[in-house]
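Minutes, methods subgroup
Present: GH (chair), OT, SY

1. OT presented the first of two proteins processed in the latest run. Sequence and structure tokens recorded below as shown on screen.
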Amino acid sequence: MLFFVLISSSFMMLLPASKAVEPVRVYVDPSSVVDPPVFFNVSVKLENVLDLAGVEWQLKWDPTVLNAVNITEVMFHEVTPQSDWDNIQRNWLDTDNVIGVARYSYVYTDGVKARENGYLPISGNHTMAIIEFQVTGVGNCTLDFTDSVLGDMNAIPMDHENANGFFSNSVAPPPQPPSPEESADVLVYLDPHQVRNESLGPQTTFSVAVRLDSIANHSGMLYVRFRLSWNSTLLECVNATDVIMHEVTPQNEWDNIELSMEWDNAQGRFYYNGIFWDMQRALSGGYEPFFGNHTIAVITFQVKDFGKCLLHPYDFRAASLPSVSVLLYATIDGYFANTLNGDLNFDNDVNVLDAILLAKSFGTRFLNTNWSEDADTNGDGIVNILDAITLCSCFGHFR
């Protein structure tokens, strides 16, 4: 028995000790810069990464005390053979000293080529970029990471920690200016905003909710009307269900609802009108006017062909008490596409032309001037490194 105990003990001693998984970190080196010379460098580093496909980050500072003189990319050119540097896709590598931000975003144009040649995915510890600063004022500030995204081989964001840097040669930076206020009373939009699925072929169906958000203080709404348009060669409406009128009204009062929902598939139009037959009865019953955020209706479409189109809400009408004044409104278009994921120019081939189109709208957010629903391949409202990775993973696909 003692023999087996000794053998077992010896065997356990030979087993490697389990190692705790170290967190993935993005950080500034050195972490603290105090009373430096007029010009100094910091490195932006990546630690403990595994199976990385693309990177995006912004580093912010107080522009009243620091200016960025230069930013140099390191990691992608370091891990990639020089003969394949033409496969490195730079989306961002720039600085803006008006707002105090450095931007970095890289991925490979052809992910298949990068994998076959052995430099994708990226793992380990790396210097991503070197930034040269010039001290222009007296103060202190954080070198603050914001909007940092690490994407893995499946274009899924990787968990990671950001370690900010710090600069000081005297006092705290001034506060940031407040954001502007919205001017509209209500917002009309579709949920989900984007229906993008290449498997939604002809005869398949999907549904979207038309939502109403109250974004200003007012005295409630007395009625609701809206219109919705789409490309009739791609989609046709097959069903619609009211939500808001039946949601705000007690069931025993539903006979007081005057509701009209019609659609014209030849023109690609949907019409909704909701009001109460007896307004005084609704007021005394406590369900008129109604307040807050609501789903107006749920609309079901059947797909007719492959392509893309906007789902455009328009001609919204609602009035508020006590003056029965018409409310100002804003609308956000919905979006449908069943083209190949990554095929931004709709030629049924995912190639470098699509990568060029994505680069043109890179960094834009929903409703920005150069925003592109096509480039936002994952529908998260921003064209960033995750969309570039998705395009990279689809590179070479065709229909």
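2. SY then presented the second protein from the same run.
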Amino acid sequence: MKKVSMLSAAAAVAVAGASIVPAVSVLAWGDSSNGRTAYTIDQIENDVLGDNVVFNSIEGASYVDANNVEHKLGDERNFVRTRVSGTHDVWSSNEIVAEDGKEYVLSLYVHNNNPKETVVAENTKVSFSIPGNSATSIDVNGYISADNATPNKYWDNVIFKSNDGAAFHLEYVAGSALWESNGASAGALSDDIITSDGVLVGYDALDGKIPGCYQYSGYASVRVKVVYDYAFAISKVVRIKGTTTWSETVDAKIGDVVEYMISYKNLSGATATDVMVQDFLPNNMEYIAGTTKIKNANHQNGAIVSDGITTTGINIGDYTNNSDAALIFEAKVVNRDLVCSKTNQLVNWVKITASGSTRKDPAIVTIAKSCPGELPNTGATPVAATALGAGSIVTALGYFIASRKK
């Protein structure tokens, strides 16, 4: 097989992504012979492999398409990659920041490097090892094996990293396993792909047979969901007093009174004692004394509490697992050092300490201060949310549980 036809066939594989394997440095690949040789395309074309089956061992491969554009395939030994589900062509082959609640596609590339179609890998299997533990860094390994390959087993990994130092775990999305290939075998794979036995892949069928050459290559993929194991959830939202819609950001003008709502929910699995809440008002917001109210299991209809929320903080008591609280207080927009002819962002942070950890969350009030001769911009840009008042704490917390902020 000629080099041009061999590499052009690589572009025909019906998979997502512009490149077969991104051109990045190898981090954690390995194999059962404790370190396989990497080959160039020229070596492969000059029959360096003979009649041996070797997987994913070409480095520096590239081809020029019909539009005279060169595509770099990188180092095939780095064959496991991931991306956020729903995105395209944005793959990470070594590390990725894990975001709470998002699903990720894990992809594993399979290529019998022998250029002879008659050299067929037998009993070819793939698998992913998805740890079930909770940690701030989780390695996911992908494996390829074939009875007659040399070496007969290959692996590579991708690392999920915490975005804020908190522990998280990965949840496999059942039924998500796929095999993408130009052959008749393309389609769903068994969930056994995440077991040590793995699953058979192939070209004409899922029979473990992978002929040599690029056009017989393929991808196995699964999806996982990132779940952070926070001890508690918090949120901070804001609205103009007299309105009913909470949001993370609101437009206001000098003299307006705004209401902030802080939400807390215990997720620790145990009782959280002496939960502390402290709010940090920006310079151009002035706390209105006597306005802090709490609603929780002990105060179903709400109760006035200490004014210390914006100074020393307040202790809101003990909370059993899955119990929650919401606090509201008022502040007035004042002009201490607002900048003329500019949209001023007044970022208000809440800090909650509970179950041995601390978390923060912001809400933003934007002020467009007008210069002489200009009209103020007072249009609000709310995001729909549930107001504190009637109903249970769960209703009052409905917004923050679904919030993008963690």
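Chair's summary of item 2: The CA atoms of residues 143 and 182 lie 21 Å apart.
Next meeting: continue with the remaining queue.
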